[in-house]
Write a structure and sequence with these properties.
245 residues, six-stranded antiparallel β-sheet, Threonyl-tRNA Synthetase, Chain A, domain 2, Elongation Factor Tu (Ef-tu), domain 3, alpha+beta, binds zinc ion, four-stranded antiparallel β-sheet, 15 strands, 3 helices
Length: 245
């Protein structure tokens, strides 16, 4: 049953009420609506807990898509109580974790602005993210850090614009990722835009992001690794290069 994925329209929604619509064999829970982000596009799914009517909790280990993108399965940790179909729950996303992922995810977009090469892979993490580029040049990581931090300090707005799958198909040039598929299949695609009138960047992405670049905070490129002749892996961390001691 298709879920109303509230996070697609509100990245800052950390709690909501929902009704259980299905229970999987492994205890996985489907809901009528959710603010839990499901793993996709290199961003890990949310963790957190569901609060039951009697006040007890079901702790979630991960959130993932089912057979299609409009199915979201919330997977409890082993040994957690089983929910029942029709049960009403109050959902609580582990917000400190999710907010770090939003800051990191936005930092990945800033890196793709500074480093304009095709992206071949990306993984957003709580402490470190990596982005792989199809490039053979050697560039200075401190220079990349300085340019990224300039974008952070300029405090550009970050917002979503929805276009149709057909509009995306007509404009293939806006897709920066070579191997990462844009979030199609919902009939509409979210373009993540940075800067007034998207002056800094816009690219299709179904992840969650902060609303102003300043929220990213201090980040730096910890490493640029050579992964093959034409592949460079950039590692982004929170903090400043002096934290690297
Ligand atoms: Zn994104």
């Amino acid at each position: 049953m298709p879920v109303n994925a509230l996070y697609r329209d509100d990245f800052y929604l950390s709690t909501t009420e929902a009704v259980v619509t299905a229970i999987h064999e492994d205890g996985g829970i489907e809901l009528d609506q959710t603010c839990f982000y499901a793993t996709s596009g290199g961003q890990p799914g949310d963790t957190g807990f569901f609060e039951r009517a009697d006040g007890s909790k079901i702790v979630l280990g991960q959130t993932k898509h089912g057979a299609t993108k409009d199915i979201i399965v919330h997977v409890p940790l082993e040994g957690e109580a089983l929910a029942a179909v029709g049960e009403k729950l109050v959902l609580h996303v582990d917000w400190p974790r999710r907010y770090r992922l939003m800051r990191m995810h936005t930092a990945c977009h800033l890196l793709s602005v500074v480093c304009q090469y095709p992206i071949t892979g990306a993984a957003v993490g709580e402490d470190e993210s990596r982005v792989d580029f199809d490039m053979s040049e050697t560039i200075d990581k401190d220079e990349v850090t300085a340019k990224m931090m300039a974008l952070v300090k300029e405090n550009h707005p970050v917002f979503v614009q929805w276009i149709t799958d057909d509009e995306l198909a007509a404009n293939p040039g806006i897709v920066k990722s070579k191997n990462v598929r844009p979030p199609i299949g919902l009939g509409r695609v979210s373009l993540v835009c940075i800067g007034d009138n998207s002056a800094v960047d816009s690219q299709p992405c179904g992840g969650t992001h902060v609303s102003e670049t300043q929220e990213v905070g201090a980040i730096y490129i910890a490493k640029i690794e050579k992964k093959g002749k034409e592949n460079r892996r950039f590692r982004i961390r929170f903090g400043t290069p002096t934290d690297e001691a």
